[in-house]
Specification:
The chain has 13 helices and 20 strands. By secondary structure, it is α/β, with parallel strands linked by helices. Helix 3 crosses helix 5. The radius of gyration is 24 Å and the shape is elongated.
Length: 416
């Protein structure tokens, strides 16, 4: 699922509250609004983000870079404002897209985006609609027989009804209805002008909706939003080599990846008990020029695909390519992410709103355990077998297990 997010607006009405940043980067208790939108879309299978950027775009690009938690990010840059329609069309053409989910970068609606996506793939256009008690700020949408029939302008009349939630499924065939000029409004020049030809289907949601475009709603978002998108959760943190796969000393090729016996069953049980599955891994082989970052991601993607097929998808992965004795200069320093430092764990806790005291970490080295202790993780397990003994078995971990992970199931009753 490719996701286009319109993040190029000026945010004029919000400038009294936020200054010198794009509106989608408005701070929600330490996290940009745009980051919360992207984090939410990861749960529904986003495979690529395309950010349409214009006003103060460098602040967005420098913050996110070229990936978000391992998912690629591309940028469709508007050198001059193109309007909502022009921005979406440019992104489709620039990256040769057949279809995409499109959303505004200044609003959030809680809904099943995967269901919306799969229900409407046979259409050139579909919209998400939301019922509100006062539609004056948004404009009403009329429907009949499961299709949208009319759009009304915003009015001063306080009237309840369905509104356009700003979530679209679009296929490239839709652009036959676009005007010739590069700058145009998606709402006015596509939806309102061609509604009689399109009569698009809609997806109705009754759940939470907020648009942060005015100070009042932004302050409301500060009170509510982070825990709605990212409710407090607990996590099972997993080291990779020696816990997920057998450690054969710098594993980076798919053919060398041998999964530890029992790991999938253990992770499936953790999923049933509502734990997020987060991988935390040092990857000094990149710094030492043993393998490339591309090789790491190739194996990473393979491992994640296998976990999906085994019914226990991993929720996130954090890696540290830095080492103080790195051969490659760009990676030569002591990073706060490199275990036994807790940086990766703390980043994951922020990204997923994790209650670390209720969480668990499994590692095969004492550096894993020390990182967990420094981060404040409540339960730690040192997993030791004949194949992964790098250090003495004496440990600060809550539990030390010296058998195979298959037998480790006996311990699950105590901790899961």
């Amino acid at each position: 699922m490719k996701v286009i997010i319109l993040a190029g607006g000026f945010g004029t009405r919000l400038q009294s509250v936020i200054h010198d940043i794009p509106k989608p980067m408005a701070d929600i208790h330490g996290t940009p609004f745009l980051e919360l939108l992207m984090a939410n879309m990861l749960h529904f299978g986003a495979t690529e983000f395309i950010l349409c950027v214009s006003h103060l775009r460098d602040k967005i690009i420098s913050y996110f870079g070229d990936d978000f938690r391992g998912i690629p990010i591309k940028y469709s840059v508007e050198t001059e404002p193109l309007g909502t329609g022009g921005a979406i069309k440019q992104a489709f053409q620039l990256f040769d897209l057949d279809e995409a989910i499109v959303m505004n970068g200044d609003s959030f609606v809680k809904m099943d985006y995967a269901d919306f996506y799969h229900q409407n793939r046979g259409h050139s256009l579909a919209l998400a609609l939301k019922f509100v008690s006062n539609a004056s700020r948004f404009g009403l949408v009329e429907t009949a027989n499961g299709l949208i029939t009319h759009f009304h302008e915003k009015s001063t009349e306080n009237k309840a009804g369905l509104i356009n939630a700003g979530i679209y499924f679009i296929r490239k065939e839709l652009w036959q209805y676009a005007p010739e000029q590069s700058k145009f409004s998606f709402e006015k020049d596509i939806l309102e002008t061609h509604i009689d030809n399109l009569h698009p289907p809609f997806y109705r949601t009754e759940d939470y909706f907020i648009d942060i475009g005015i100070p009042e709603s932004y302050h409301q978002a500060l009170k509510e939003l982070k825990n709605i998108i990212l409710p407090k959760c607990k996590a099972l943190f997993l080291d990779r080599d020696g816990v997920i796969n057998v450690d054969k000393h710098y594993v980076y090729r798919i053919q060398d990846c041998e999964f530890v016996d029992g790991i999938f069953d253990f992770c499936m049980q953790a999923k049933k008990d509502d734990y997020k599955l987060i991988v935390i891994t040092n990857q000094a082989g990149i710094a030492k020029n043993i393998y490339s970052k591309e090789a790491y991601f190739n194996l990473r993607n393979y491992i994640h695909d296998i976990f999906v097929k085994r019914g226990c998808p991993l929720d996130g992965e954090y890696y540290c390519p830095y080492h103080p004795q790195a051969i490659l200069k760009e990676y030569r320093y002591e990073s706060t992410d490199r275990k036994p430092n807790p940086g990766m764990i703390l980043k994951a806790a922020k990204d997923f709103n994790i209650d670390l005291k209720q969480s668990i970490l499994i590692g095969d080295k004492e550096s894993d355990i020390l990182a967990a202790k420094r981060a404040g993780i409540g339960t730690t397990i040192r997993f030791v077998t004949e194949g992964n003994v790098y250090e003495p078995q004496a440990s600060q971990a809550t539990y030390v297990w010296t058998n195979t992970l298959k037998e480790f199931h006996e311990l699950t009753e105590k901790i899961l």
